[in-house]
Model the fold of this input.
Amino acid sequence: MKFDLLILEQYFPVLLEGLEATLRITALSLLFGLAGGAILCFAKLAGRGAGHAIASFIIDFFRTIPEFVLIFWVYSCLPLLLSVRMPSEASGIVALSLFTAAYTAEILRAGILSVDKGQIEAVLSLGIPKRVIWMRVVFPTAIRRMLPALISFISELVKATALLSTISVAEITYQANVLGSRTFAFIEFLSAAALLYFLLIFALSAAARYAERRLHQRGIR
Done:
């Protein structure tokens, strides 16, 4: 059995459409998830009260549910509960956004808590407003420290998009399976899909390693 490059070349634009869908889903899930994660993060940082309890429950709940189960629940059950029709891609984005919110909430919280309290107290003693301290001291330091963990999570999010092929979202894995079924060239198309994922994850991993080196050079641990 030989590897048919001609058929791969013929249908490669379809795989690129899948790549575009993967990137779109990843970007939107990350955008909505980070917004939700920030809300959960600050609610949990409050340390007490109903907001803290609710945020802690939501974070623990969505961190313990397998992504596969969450995707199918949003796709199959949420439209029934809300009495609305939801496209498969929208269902996937909602599920991955919930998954992202739960994980990024903890990444954001860890980054903020890593900022030295003595440093904050020293700046406060100078009479600088809290808003300025958060914008000029806390956020820049926290972002630098949580960047490697955040990039690593984005790599996991990209891989999680492959699960959306089970609900017929036309991302990379789905397109590769469809093309393989249509042409019987499963080896070619699934190998090409694996290569595309590798290139995406490798680029993100390289970015994470670069960010870690930069942090060590600046003396940030």
Q: What stands out?
A: The chain has one domain: 5-217. The chain has a mean pLDDT of 88. The CA atoms of residues 4 and 162 lie 24 Å apart.
